[in-house]
Amino acid sequence: MTLTKKGDYSYGTSAKDIQTEMAEFSEDNGYPTVRYAQSVCACGNRSFNLESDEDAGVAQRTCAECGVVHFMGDSAEFADDADLGGHVCVCGEDVFELMSGVALYPDSNDVRWYYIGCRCAGCDLVGVFAEWKCEAGNADAFLAKV
Length: 146
Ligand SMILES: [Zn+2]
Ligand SMILES: [Zn+2]
What we know:
By secondary structure, this protein is mainly beta. It has one domain. It has helices at about 15-30, 140-145; strands spanning about 5, 10, 35-40, 50-55, 60-65, 70, 85, 95-105, 110-120, 125-140. The chain has a 6-stranded antiparallel sheet. A 4-stranded antiparallel sheet has the order 6-5-4-7, with no helix packed on it. A hairpin with a 4-residue loop joins strand 4 (about 50-55) and strand 5. The two termini are about 25 Å apart.
């Protein structure tokens, strides 16, 4: 695994590289990611289209293999207020490997901030595509639903 910087962009070869990029981003954001979980469809596939609305706190992934649509984390609770926009890589690809990360409140297992990291299936770009303040409570329950 290697994370390579090219200009403003980072490129990686593994899911672990997404975490490295997320760690750096979240550190700069002031709420460092301490736990991660990768999105895996019920069909076993790990590549998705991603739509999100950071203001509403909603992200939705669609499996690139079987087409199942899933609200990530606690997104389903806020879906009614969401105006979802799709994510497209700078290379034009819209299929990504997805990694979720959370920052926690001190001395707790409670979610404080939610980050969604992506690795492009086309060009291997890695980055944080969505993040918001998120008070979802128990991180285990939250990360089990990404
Ligand atoms: Zn699937
Ligand atoms: Zn790309």
